[in-house]
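Q: Sequence in, structure out?
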Amino acid sequence: MGKLSIRDEGVNDLAETLAEMLGVTKTEAVRQAIQNEIERIRSMPTIEDQIAALQERVKNYGFRSTHIVPPKGKR
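A: Exactly. Output:
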């Protein structure tokens, strides 16, 4: 089994604070924090999903042409 050693005092303080808040050991607090971050990242929509949602929003505006009208003064 690998070992995790926290040498940064600031990180150690954060882990201790979280452990106290959760009422668990420092190891358990770090495990929960890492697990929560993994779940948060995995639940984020992919870039493909974000693009598809944006395309759907634009489509719903009712645009029928891809013709771009130049700004005033540039016509």
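Helices lie at 9-22, 26-43, 47-60.
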